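We emphasize that the prediction below concerns an isolated chain of 295 residues; any contacts that depend on oligomerization or on bound cofactors are therefore not represented. The input was used exactly as deposited, without trimming of termini.
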Amino acid sequence: MLLSTVILPIYRWPEARTVWRRAEQLGAHAGYSYDHLSWRSFAGGPWYGTVPMLSAAALVTDRLRLGTMVTSPNFRHPVPLAKDLMTLDELSAGRVTAGIGAGSATGFDATVLGGPAWPAGERADRYAEFVRLLDTLLRNPDTTATGRYYSADAAKTIPGCVQRPRLPCYLAGTGPRGLRLAAELGDGWITTGPAGRPAENLTAALGAVGDQLRRLAHACTDAGRDPATLHRVLLTGFLPGEPLRSFDQAVELAGTAGQLGIDEVVVHWPVPDSPFAMDERLFDRILTELPGQLG
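Result of the prediction step, given as a token string:
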């Protein structure tokens, strides 16, 4: 079981540098960051660009993997994103994972560029086209492609990613189309728990994750792929019942997730007076001791 953290891009650089270094010192497998232009209750406060912040983090860490959790078509285009990700992979000496999702239909990013939020069907179509083109761009030095929503004309991705044939892409999505896309093109899959209506309690939420994993396995089989080749990530922070209130509860959550088939559990870096508030000593203990408890 791998244990990672999400570090929100809310800190001025002197503090951010300390946070990213601390994540590595505590033994986190990866440090991810949300790729939004602003987000929920943080909309009125500092929120920095994710790719520049990850680039800076790459220069002050040595082992910590880095990634987006997640980037989306809401305000990204595959051509400049591929260039940014390639560059970030270079700066980090091959430590980057791109977490990618369809993006929220109701959040800040959905309308920040001045247009209306996309209908559900269009959002799913855009997501699939976005991922396919990004995959092609990251694998090839020269790409020309024409799509309904995203195109490229002799787009250059040179010299390419440090990680070959491209950096890993973890795809979020729990519906039929999202699971098929992850099975076909993803190196990993991301879930935050039940989609749609929140679960009544943690047991129900983890049961829903188990169902998602079973459907993901079926999608892999249909795609002619061994489900074991897809890295499976659970992002906590949106599960009911405050499952990280104590170390024992964290061990129980991660243990159950591992039994279900999750390979990596991601915990938010503590932010006081926010949905991600947590005792810092407990957080440190979770990162340093929990992996050893699970093997």
